Amino acid sequence: MSKNRGATGPAAPQNPKTQLAAQEALRGKRRGLRAVLPFIGPAFIASIAYLDPGNFATNIQGGAEFGYALLWVILLANLMAMLLQSLSAKLGIATGKNLAEMCRLRFPRRVCIILWITQELTAMATDLAEFLGAAIGITLIFHIPMIISAAIIGVLVFVILGVTRRGFRGLELFIGGAAGIIAFCYIIETVLAKPDWGQILFHSFVPSLPGNGAVLLAVGIIGATVMPHAIYLHSGLTQSRIVPRNEVEARRIFHYEKIDVVIAMAVAGLVNMAMLFMAAKVFHFTGHTDVADINTAFRTLTPLLGGGAALVFGVSLIASGVSSSHVGTMAGQIVMQGFVDFRVPVWLRRVATMFPAMAAIALGLDPTRTLVISQVILSFTLPVPVITLIMFTRNPKIMGALVNKRVTTVLAIVCAAVILLLNVLLLYQTFGGPLPDFGGAPAG
Asked: Which whole-number Å values give the CA distances from 340 to 74, 93, 202, 386, in the listed order?
């Protein structure tokens, strides 16, 4: 294994039963599903970042305004997420260190401080989206002021923080349960909406950007799907969860972790696509193309699909906001400790990251517009972890037997290039540059 092994990152106590089951699987005493189960969990924790309220905002706006046309963006982003999250998990397994710690080991301190600041800004944008989304959900269901809803979410997140003290397994079960609630809610929404499956299939694989506004939403969807903090987090979750004793075990652990990644990211991707095609069917093709915010979507669902649909939508939003907010706090701890080797109590970080959301609510900013902009910010900071992740995972001196194959590195570079290209297009558009219509009006 790599000489860099020796984890120093923030890790919760490991469940002895999980450890024992994992060792039995590595020694061949467990087969099939029983061998896979002890390794399932880290990707599901990371995947909740792909189902945060920012996804609700961009997907609803994209579906309402452009119909099914941007489904391909979600599919592309999800495939990118699978690759990048697997590389992040592999880094933690191979080195015993997370991505931020590897940056501190390899880069000058000045560079690490700059990277840390950019990622702290990312954490603020992330938490803004998560808090706002969950608060919106409570407000819509219970008809109470947003500021009170935000305070309730803050209390809930503090309660959930206690779960980590009992080990990662409890947290994995909680986050997995939240993901399950969100997925179940959108199964119900899909059944009620009855979308056009032929159009869904077509637009999932045929790219189009119908109009200049589609570029902003495409970048927002990428930013909402491929999350910077999730890349840092995943390497932190695998760095000491099951520690390999040799390269053979490292390969086997990574094999199981790839299964974890594929399942978790596939669930997240399907839910994101369901958000968009539900919005397309219910809003775009019924003449409600101006439904560009979560509040309007909730109110419009009631007359179109019934009060039950609106309630399910609100419940999924709350589950998304509460669970992803907790995951964002974990990622922030890993980023700060990894880049600058500085620790603050988790409750203090939680309080600090609540302030932007509280301020946005107090100032009366448009919640959904704020959510979309926050996702665009995430897209601009995303190249930092992606590029450093590629640099480390392609280096055999760091990764040992788990070093990237050439095709893996090429695909990862293509992912980084796509992200950078979309950001350049967005900047060009922001400063007044005209963009052509890449796909015409979305098919109906």
From this structure: 34, 22, 47, 19
